[in-house]
DNA sequence: ATACGTGCAAAGTATTTGCAAACGG
DNA sequence: CCGTTTGCAAATACTTTGCACGTAT
């Protein structure tokens, strides 16, 4: 089997293991809801809402409660293995925080709600520079671009 | 009296007039709640939540309902004279959108919630470049930097 | 065995909507 | 006047909390 350095499936698998390890290291047990939410997140390419994760788990036949989904997500965020995103509309979205420190930002269609990730090194460097100039200690940042996706523009 | 080009009070006064004019131009009347919310926003230097605006108006003795505050803010956002911000925590914040197209972003203290505005032309240009490269039509963008303010870091 | 974890239901916030009364032009 | 706007209260949407039962270690 060929091993590719930036293979996506391998990356998310690695993330699931990493997340489970962090949970254990923090002195927590591996309950059903925790395993289920980690697996669900590992299988997605971009951010999901708590409700979407819940719906997917139920569709897969798992008997989880939505409260547990929220509790697990909170735990994973506090352990630093999941990033919580606020793309507007009053709902939080969650995605795996990849170990390498690499991260992306999001384009959001204001019409259909589609979310597309993007990366931009120039943007990151501008943000770092601003952060350094400020008297705040900056730990994190979010960038959201809002507009219309090709499909909605056509319609 | 000396007239300064970038005088703040003059700028916000001008904004209030501009906002009222846009409301009228769109065929809306100048009811009590609309005038009150516009005045309240004009008197603030940075973003406020709907609840904060409501509380301030009540403290000033105006008998407005919070539903009207939300309705007026929605109207002003749709007219493009107010910008809606989502700095996290599930609550929306609002601030005047100054006519010149100039705008700023925000540093948020995750501990005390303090919000500080900042500007960065390099950041803007990086975002424009990314927007142009994407197949979305980008109308707006938000940048939020999260960290600790000097006071909270000291404590 | 025994804490810790979970599901369900109820409570808690932020925001929206229905409606009759008040009001602007 | 007459349709718009408003305040109140009820409804909604997302998230959190209380609690008894289940389960991993």
Structure description:
- 2 copies of one chain form a homodimer.
- With 155 residues, chain A is α+β, with helices and mostly antiparallel strands.
- Chain A has 2 domains: 89 residues, Orthogonal Bundle (Arc Repressor Mutant, subunit A); 52 residues, Dna Ligase, domain 1 (2-Layer Sandwich).
- Helices cover 45% and strands 21% of the residues of chain A.
- Chain A is built from 6 helices and 6 strands.
- The first copy, chain A, has a 3-stranded antiparallel β-sheet. The first copy, chain A, has a 3-stranded mixed β-sheet with strand order 5-4-6.
- In chain A, β4 and β5 form a beta hairpin.
- In chain A, α1 runs antiparallel to α2 and α2 crosses α3.
- The mean pLDDT of chain A is 91.
- At the A-B interface, α5 and β6 of A face α5 and β6 of B.
- β6 of chain A pairs antiparallel with β6 of chain B, so a sheet runs across the interface.
- The structure holds a DNA duplex (25 and 25 nucleotides).
Features:
about 45% helix, homodimer, Arc Repressor Mutant, subunit A, 3-stranded mixed beta sheet, 2 domains, DNA-binding, Dna Ligase, domain 1, alpha+beta, about 160 residues
């Amino acid at each position: 089997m060929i091993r590719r350095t930036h293979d996506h499936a391998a990356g998310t698998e690695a993330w699931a293991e990493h997340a489970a390890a962090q949970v254990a290291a923090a002195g927590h047990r591996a309950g059903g809801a925790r395993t289920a939410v980690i697996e669900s997140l590992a299988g997605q390419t971009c951010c999901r809402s708590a409700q979407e994760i819940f719906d997917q788990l139920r569709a897969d036949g798992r008997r989880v409660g939505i409260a547990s989904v929220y509790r697990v997500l909170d735990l994973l965020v506090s352990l630093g293995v999941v990033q919580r995103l606020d793309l507007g509309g009053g709902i939080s979205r969650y995605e795996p925080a990849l170990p390498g420190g690499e991260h992306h930002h999001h384009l959001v269609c204001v019409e259909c709600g589609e979310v597309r990730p993007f990366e931009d090194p120039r943007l990151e460097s501008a943000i770092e520079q601003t952060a350094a100039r400020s008297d705040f200690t900056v730990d994190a940042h979010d960038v959201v671009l809002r507009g219309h996706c090709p499909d909605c523009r056509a319609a």
